[in-house]
Structures are given as C-alpha cells and as structure tokens.
Amino acid sequence: MAKNLIQQTAQEDHSHSHRLTLLQREASFSKQIIVTVAIMLVLIALVYSCNIPNPNMILIAGLVFCSALCGFGGGVVAALIMLLYTLFFFSVDHSFVNFTTEGLQKVVVSLIGIVVDMLLVCNVKRAEMRAFRQVESLSQDLHRENQKLHDVSLTDGLTQIRNRTALQLDSDSYLDREVTVMMLDLNDFKNINDTSGHEEGDRILSETAQLLADSFGRTHCYRYGG
C-alpha cells in the first residue's frame, strides 16, 4: 500500500511538473505580440494623459516586464513601441523626424538604454528557460529511472514474473472480484538441483514461469516462493 501511494504521488508530481512546464514555456509569437502591445499601449496612454515629463522612466518598466514575461519576442516588440513613442515625444511638434540638439541627444540616450535593457533582460529570460528545460529533462529521466527501479523491485530476477511483494501490493485489486487462485509446486525439485545442478533447476523454473505467463498473462503470475 505504501509503495502504491509513493508511486502514485511520484506520478502526480511528475504530471503536475509537466503541466507546469507547458504553462511556463514561451507563448506563441502572436500571443507575445498581443500581450506586449496591450501593456505598452496602456502605459503610453498613462504617460500621455498624465503629461509625465520623462515618460521613458515609466515605459522602461513595461519594456523590462514584457522582456521578462515573453522573452525576445515581447522584448523586441516593446522596444520598437518604446522607440516610436520616444521619437514622437522628443521630436519637434511630434513630427518623428525633426529634433532639437537636446531632443536628439535624449533620443540617442533612450535608444541605448532601450537596447541594453532589452538584451539584458531577454538574455536572463533565455538562461532561465534553458535551465528550466534542463531541469525538466532531468526530472523526466529521474522519473523513468524510478519507474524502472519500481518495476525491478516487483519482478522476480530469475523467472521474470512478478514476485511476492507485487502480489501483496496487487492483492487489493482482486478484492470483490470473481477470481481463480492456483498455487503450483514442482515435485522433486530438490532432486533436480542435486543431480543436475542449480543451473538446470533455474532453467526449469524459468521455463515453467514462461509457460504460466503465456497461459495466464505475466501480470497475473507470481513467484511466491524462492
């Protein structure tokens, strides 16, 4: 019962981890664009309506957030939107092309800040996703190895049918069912080991187990002795 509970818990943890992996992976590029554009437009509407003198202080937060949330897809889109608004804000009469010397300097400084911030945050995001994928891969490998160990612990090493521990764990599954139970014992088996050797005895046990498995199914045959 305890082993069943441990196995079930491990499987549930692995399943939950797998679902978490799918949720935390980068969204599709179209979703990245939609989310990023929405966030940046809300921030632009905020700074424009409030007439904030230095809007980049607010917009840079949106750039960092979108880059961290969506990776390079969101970061590039947010950077382009922020650059367009920077050109709009610092240009003469919001013309996008005519700048005073001071305005042009602010655009250049803003551009450098936008690119640096976007690259730094996106690289951190990329490293995070790479590490997450490595952890996921290791988790899957560990789950497979644990499953192999679990299967080995319930299998008789000689006959390759299920062992006494497996029967104890499986006993609940046979309750309230109409079943036929048959126990077999090989007559004069000690004489075979004494006269022909233990290797011959092992061979006979293995062939007997194979006959039973072929007849009744390997999952319903158990080596109770041994």
Q: What is the CA-CA span between the terminal residues?
A: 23 Å
Round the Cα radius of gyration to an integer and report it.
34 Å
Give me the count of strands: 2
Helix-and-strand structural type: mainly alpha
Sketch the major β-sheet.
Answer: 2 strands, parallel
> What spatial form do the alpha-carbon principal axes imply?
rod-shaped
Order of helix and strand elements from N to C terminus: HHHHHEHHHE
- Poorly predicted runs of 5 or more residues: 1-7, 18-24
Number of H- or I-type helical stretches:
8
Strand order across the biggest sheet? 1-2
Percent strand equals: under 5%
Instruction: Name the average pLDDT.
Output: 85
Fraction of residues in H or I helices:
over 70%
Fold and architecture overview:
The protein has 226 residues and is mainly alpha-helical. The chain has helices spanning 2-24, 29-49, 56-70, 72-90, 101-153, 164-170, 189-196, 198-216; strands at 162-163, 222-223. It has a two-stranded parallel ribbon. The protein is rod-shaped, with a radius of gyration of 34 Å. The two termini are 23 Å apart. Residues 1-7 and 18-24 have low confidence and may be disordered.
